[in-house]
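Supplementary Text 2. Reproducibility record for the structural model of the 446-residue chain.

All settings were left at their defaults, and a single model was retained for analysis rather than an ensemble. We include the record here because the model underlies the residue-level annotations in Supplementary Table 4.
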Amino acid sequence: MKKKSGKGLALLVCLILVCTGIVGCGSASNDKNPDTQEETGGGTATEEATATQAPDTEEKATIEILSLKTEEGPQNAFNQMFESFRKAHPNVEFDIQAMSSDELKTTLRARSASGDMPDIITWMKEVEPEYLLDLSGESFISNLNADSVSAANAIYDDGVYAMPVDNGYIGLYYNKDVLEANGLEVPKTVSELKNTCEALKAKGITPFASSLSDLSVPYMSLIALFSETVFGPNPDWSAQMDAGEHTILEDSGWKTAFDLHKEFVYGYSDPDTAYNQSYDDCAALLANGEVAFYGNGSWALSGIRDVNQDANIGLMAFPVSENEQDAKLLCFPDTALSICAGSENIDAAKEFLAYVASEEAGKIWSENVKVSSTVNGVNVDYDPISADINYYLTNNLFTPYGDRVLRSVFTDKLWEIYSYYMLDEYDWDTLAGELDNAWETAIKSQ
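Retained model, structure tokens:
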């Protein structure tokens, strides 16, 4: 699939994230509504339509959803939304399956080959638009922030294949209590970050939580870093790379991102224990004050809060130089839903997406998943950390460009080999050379 150039997207995402979250994933268990669900008033036209009991003649349907998010917060939110939706659509059931990105890719490849696609998927750029339903013109799309919709579909030449439901970020979580207890300030430059890590290490405190059993954990930090060092100063870098104006091998921004990743995310973690630490373990280390820093995205916040609701944490952009203005938070339209073109329940799937785009569903998701919403009118103060995010947005210290604006063939290779540099299995020339070749392959395969 072809990608558009990134011009103008920064403005779009700024408007998106200042405004407003929904969707993640759940488990195969459905339709359980926690007693804590709150009623919402002042419904929109979509909500009023949802609240009207469906006629008895509505055909029975089971909506199958394949999703990527497995945290407790998204599961609770989905179950609440299913229960609420079924009050108006009692003949609709849900079968939601949560899986990893690789598992979802494999599943979709196999099912598309056999002509047995699910009804709804958590959007993935790897899915070509011919396999997805174009949602252009659907009335419920207008319930969402228009800039969110445009930004989420910037990868396509035209059409609306992804319905964005929340806005995300990737940055550096930090435990305020750990820093304060050791007389340390929040670091704003690379040298300050290094001094902070050394001071913690001298006191027997591991500065960074990281995992070597789940490489998706350190990978998130790398995405945040190259979004700052490559796309932060040059939003048009990808288009220029396509035109032959750059190489990764000779690009100082890419080299800086990888070097900082190796030095801090890996170097100031505990490699001996990191091989036994999972995604959940890393969240717990930060929440319990056993480490000071943890690089990850918005989806990790619910896991941190599940461990310690009162953890005194903040969010910052990774320092990448001695100029604190170069530290830009990666902010972007995150989770989105797509209807598969081969769905046998397209009408029911559209009805559900219309509900997901309602204020009621937006509040359910934002409160449970701890994210900002794309639904117009939904502004939930979901966590104290939102003040940190607003700081970067209001001061224009953010970039919307991470791995999601890169071709899948390239990011597949990046994911495959990025840790080789971190673990000293590749030198820079070898790593960068393979990534340059992958970029060329990606261009040819689009």
